[in-house]
Amino acid sequence: MAANRSKHILFLSYDGLTDPLGQSQIIPYLKGLCGYGYTFTILSCDKPDLYKANQSTVEEQLSGVAIEWVSIPYHKWPPVLSSAYDFLQMKRTAYRLHRKYRFDMVHTRPGVPTVVATAMQKKFGIKFLNDVRGFWAQERVDGGMWNLRNFVYRQLYTFFRKHELQCLLKADALVCLTEAARHIIMRETAEHGKTTNPTVIPCSADTDFFDPSTLNTGALEALKQQCGIKENELVISYLGSIGGWYLTDEMMHFCSEVHAAIPTARFLFISPHRHDQILQAAQKQGIPSNRLITVRAERSLVPLYLSLSHFNLFFIRPCYSKLASSPTKHGEVMSMGIPVITNSGVGDLDDIIQRTQSGWLIETFSKDAYADVVRRLQSPSPFNATAIRQSALEIYGLQHAVQQYREVYRTILGDE
Fold first, then answer.
1. What is the spatial distance between Cα 341 and Cα 268, in angstroms, rounded to a whole number?
2. SS3 105
3. Contact 205, 328 (CB under 8 A)
4. 338-357: string of b/e by CB count within 10 Å (b at 16+)?
5. Residues 6 or more apart from 307 whose CB is under 8 A from it?
């Protein structure tokens, strides 16, 4: 099972290991790959407040495995110049680490780290795995972070679009999150004379943690009483941050249609922040406050809170860049056996939900589209929780993702 233990990989992250996604979408994969004999150095830019709060948690997660963590500060101000400074710091540190370890490969996600990776590939001849977790430059435009009417942002967008294409063409292998992204990448590289076949590895979920069979029934009943949820009340949950790509007003409009038809329905928002925005959006749609439950749940309690719900709701802005997106929350919710209500046009959600019969898709954010789902909610649920969880294990299971990464590593590094 063990690979050649001399294979040492540099992993570059601009989002940071102390961010929640760093802990759920970087560390578990690399720890799994350590089981095949690989050694890692992670170089990350971490936000100072999160680093202070979560440093010990990350160090505990990395304890006992062949992963070294090197963190440098992330800077947010002033815009653009701070990112340029972070790039220089990351590049200088990466070069220093490479001279020390002589890495066999650099593994990166889009954005600033790929600029460092391609520089290392050119200077040192190091192998380069381009992990395309999204169409980074377009995401910044679609998400409103880069206004193309601004000259600086327009220049940045032009630079990174060209850079992203070069990364696709120069990488020794490509990974992406969705089949939709895979086809776009294959088409774009073919137009420039290169045949590519990216490996699709969706965002994994911790299916052992999000497992309804491990929940304490007594604790579940106590939580239900604490939240004031009565027997036979329909509960629709939302999990995660509010705002950004997630369409709060549209989701609350849907909830208002549910409330009008099913007055006893409850809406449970499990979110770390912006509860005032949730309450304001509900009030705007005429949803009584006693129908709404907002909680800031510790991660250890999230599965318990999710289990209170019969359906999980999330609407994501459907745009070009989101074709490359694989929402982490989808795997987590499916692992709990909970069907979802979401919109079409995001990543592979349409195909996954229809193929696994694990929820309902809304084609448009309209009263008629909402009414169709509301009618279905008034009938007995057609979904099978056990089948939904089994599909989650097959699609989003961590071990499957680790094995796929292992095959990509073998292709690049040629180890047995």
1. 14
2. strand
3. yes
4. bbbbbbebbbbbbebbeebe
5. 212, 215, 220, 336, 338
Q: Does 78 sit behind a cis peptide bond, omega within 30 degrees of 0 on the bond before it?
A: yes
Closest Cα to residue 309, out of 189, 244, 379, 212?
212
Q: Pick left, alpha or beta for residue 232 (phi over 0 → left; psi -120 to 50 → alpha; otherwise beta).
A: left
Q: What is the pLDDT along the chain (416 residues), one digit of tens a residue?
A: 444 457 999 999 998 898 877 888 899 999 999 999 999 999 999 999 999 988 999 999 999 999 999 999 999 899 899 999 999 999 999 999 999 999 999 999 999 999 999 999 999 999 999 999 999 999 999 988 999 999 999 999 999 999 999 999 999 999 999 999 999 999 999 999 999 999 999 999 999 999 999 999 999 999 999 999 998 899 999 999 888 889 999 999 999 999 999 999 999 999 988 898 999 999 999 999 999 999 988 888 999 999 999 999 999 999 999 999 999 999 999 999 999 999 999 999 999 999 999 999 999 999 999 999 999 999 999 999 999 999 999 999 999 999 999 999 999 998 76
